[in-house]
Design brief:
Length: 396
Amino acid sequence: MIETQNLSSSSLYLAIDQGGHASRALVFDYRGNVVAEGHQAISISRPQPDWVEQDPEELVESIRIAVDKAVATLGQHRHRLVAAGLATQRSSIACWDKQTGAALTPVISWQDRRAHDWLDRFSAYTEKIHHNTGLPLTAHYGVSKMRWCLDHVPAVKQAREQGRLALGPMSSFLLFRLLEERPLLVDPANASRTLLWSLKGLDWDPELLNLFEVPLDLLPRSVPTRFEFGHLPIGDQRVPVRIVNGDQSAAMFAYGRLQPDTAYINTGTGAFVSRPAGHYRGYARRLLASIILQENDETTYVLEGTVNGAGALTNTGTLNLTDATLAAAVDNQNITNVTALNTLSSATGVFDNSGNVNVLGGVFTLSGGGTHSGTFDAAAATSLNFNGGTHDFGDG
């Protein structure tokens, strides 16, 4: 329920989250309080083994519906919306006609692995790719999906021949379809999940574009996380979109500024253990390096471990996070007491007498008491105990 007396003179901010199972819109006041929200469920298709797709038109429409639901509850206060941000699934890709905006393929999910056999031919470049991108060579990332579309989808081939093809992260497709300006832009978090983007150069990597034979002119222009992306029409309003990020990247800011001695554990369709790394530290064996924010002259990196199959546990088992595995994930930094383990979104958490956290879904932050030193070993995420279900290691 909106407390209108508290909104009479305050600015409002719209946050849009396009996730694997729903699109959500939240309106915040300047204190960070949620004052309105909207939700729209979406479907997912698995037409054959290793294929995971979503309907691009359904995704676009679901965002519009969620936003309309949220804004409708604001009444006259909707005109106090001053900015919007978009967070999306990382590693999902789309192909579209940059003249008409029509989708030429389904949105191919980050869970999709249809081109893993093709990707195997690049195994000799695994370490080089990891050095440049911060990521291991896996079909969960965008490049193999893009290359599959270029090689196998007639509509994509025709659009390319006619100079009408755009392809890239799903976030870029959504911006093109939702904003008045129809921009061809991509933020660092989503661009970096393609295996084509340089963490050090902060742009598309010419060496990797050449290796995977993906033409630069087909890709959206890389811009910072905080940028004037364009305007989202909402009824008679035009709300500027000024932040675009990956969903897992954005989740780390749910409690404000990042804490360097905190390991952030996000669980949902996948499970993610992340630790702020400050400046870019270069190649980290068995770890994922990620950019979660770029603005002005500041770039924020994290080290990360992921478990892609965690979402299956909501139906087939539980993800068991024990004190031991949590401590391992932050390099045994003497974390013996969990002082802050909090839900940041809708979640079900069951805590047993042995200190185990049986997580069925949601976003969590772990803080250990005291001052910690050492480095984050996100590879320890692979030691998380699974009681049932399946798991896969990569990224979402």
